[in-house]
Amino acid sequence: MIKCIIPIFLSLSLASLSVGQTSSIWKKYQEAKKAGNEEPLPDYSYAGYGFGEKAIPDVEAEVFNVTDFGAFPDDGKADLEGIQDAINAAEENGGGIVFFPPGRFLVSEVEGASKCIEIRGSNIVLRGSGSDEGGTTLFMRHRLFPADPKIGWSIPPAVYFTPLDKGLSSREILMAKGNAEARLAADAQRGDFQIKVADASGFKVGEVVSIAAEGTRLNSYYLDGLKTRENWERINTRGVAVTEKHLIKKIEGNTLVFHAPLHDRFLVSDDWAVIVYPVLEECGFEDIHVEGNFHEVYVHHKQNGFGAVSMESCLNSWIRRCRFTNLINGAAFSGCVASSMLLNEIGGNPGHSSFSISFGTNNLFGLSRDVCGYYHGPNVSHLAIGSVVWRYTADHGARGGPDFHATFPQVTLWDACDSKYLDSHGGNFKDLPNHLGGLTLWNFNQTGKPDKDVDYWDLLPGQPDKPYGPLTVVKPTIVGFHGADTTFDRSTVGYLESLGRAVSPESLYEAQLELRLGKKPEWIEQAKTEWKEIIEDRTE
Known about the structure:
This is DUF4955 domain-containing protein. It comes from Rubellicoccus peritrichatus. Residues about 1-20 have low confidence and may be disordered. The protein is α/β, with parallel strands linked by helices. Helix 2 (about 80-90) links the parallel strand 1 (about 65) and strand 2. The protein has three domains: about 1-40 and about 475-505, no CATH class; about 50-165 and about 280-450 and about 510-540, Single-stranded right-handed beta-helix, Pectin lyase-like (Pectate Lyase C-like, 3 Solenoid), CATH 2.160.20.10; about 170-280, no CATH class. The protein is built from seven helices and 35 strands. The longest helix is centred in the last third of the chain and has 18 residues, at about 520-540. The radius of gyration is 22 Å and the shape is globular. It has a 20-stranded parallel sheet that branches. It has a seven-stranded parallel sheet with strand order 4-7-17-21-24-26-28. It has a six-stranded antiparallel sheet with strand order 8-13-10-11-12-9.
């Protein structure tokens, strides 16, 4: 958990603060980095493909054209088997590009089916011929049904990347129910690049490990002194659950050295398990339009089955330059590490969830937009840590704002985003609060009506039987919030600066990357330029 070490900014001259004034907390962050002291902000700069250090690659590999396997666009015939055969051939080859020529492919023609397109090997890129008119469309005529009728969340998306056997879900691994290879043997602090385990013989360089614990013993630290509601069943009975996943860079004795620093504090007394976590590597889904057949008015939790693409347990992978329309659920990362969703758009008839990051560590979602207003905006939930939502826009529809969907996400950055609404949060009331510590809203531009006296820890004391309440977050940091005249209950905010005026740097993620690497990586400006061109082409 991140504990702020700077008091709330109580300047009486907010109105005179000029746009672009350098943030005070940013200055203190730079000073702390230079001096090697505890920083007043989390370091979010390791989010994204290659830990933010390099561009998503334009892969050159053997091409498996789906038409060579019997999947032909625009012929009115089902294409699921042909597409799957092309993927299987690429997997047997050890990788490759599964290529879709222009046209419309039919991927869900059987009513009542639960079969989807599955990718179970590394180095597989599904590449279309563009997501706009004249490009590639994967069309879902019928909704998919649960793979297990007793488990509602087992409904697959149209396209599903996963290394896991159907009998072993990422939830079991991430909740420390899998076989622990080792236990933590020495305390480790936020910012460290290594942990010591009792026995490192079960690990290899290049593997991903999950550091996991669950229990009420964790509650005091992660709640930072805040009380819970009686109906928050999980945290009260089972306690906070935490997992943080890392790629092993080298092994020195019983010390595992990682590519990225720890976001969390790990104490031996808290009994942390260290688990080998299976992943796919270098997988991509790009330049494809996924279209569903959802045209009803969405009723929350009453409809499902039109989901676009999900990457589960993927490392250094990506979803980019895609469009998603007439769906209930768009694109999702589940249990991914150092992966990116960039340059994507969701529209058409709005459904449930636009974009989602859950269970993973150091993932980036950005340079994307919702043009219709999904019920939930970008969803960061379920033990996700180190997530960044960067330069996202949601100015349309009735909802579509930030979503913190409970089950203990932490250390999340919303960075230089425009949204009509301050939140569209969700999550079962039994799994609240919505977010633990480390949430930062940086230069958030609220374009809709203002909210007044936003209380981030309202436990509804006069309404004990009411299951849901306002968004609950452990002491967020809010810097440069502007647009609408929204105000906050400052007793529930960890740090508040420059309310009503944007600050410099414009993007905290970009600034932290530049500070860490000595210069801003070229992919940042290239991606921003590409996104601007995409938007201009679509508005002509």
